[in-house]
Write a structure and sequence with these properties.
This protein is mainly α and 90 residues long. The chain has helices at 2-37, 40-57, 59-85.
């Protein structure tokens, strides 16, 4: 009986893994299609600028800036949405 339960548990986990793999594949396909729409010049120039910034500032300060930006993003997006509600930017 114990072996049967373990096999059922493995099958259930396998089904979950298949669903997640399909989701990730769909997201990867969407990302790929989005990058196809962006001109190649933009991708190369942004990559070069990011590389230059990384060389100048160093990885630790860029990591800190990224962390700070990710913390500030919800606040700024709410502020912009609030501004739109009151007619700012029209």
């Amino acid at each position: 009986m114990k072996r049967k339960k373990l096999l059922q548990k493995i099958d259930a986990l396998d089904q979950k893994l298949k669903l997640r793999t399909e989701d990730i594949h769909g997201l990867a396909q969407n990302t790929h299609n989005t990058f196809k729409k962006v001109p190649l010049v933009w991708l190369i120039s942004v990559g070069a600028a990011a590389g230059a910034l990384m060389a100048i500032m160093g990885p630790t300060s860029l990591y800190t800036m990224g962390l700070t930006g990710s913390r500030l993003f919800p606040m700024t997006s709410k502020a912009f949405n609030l501004g739109k509600q009151f007619g700012a930017g029209e």
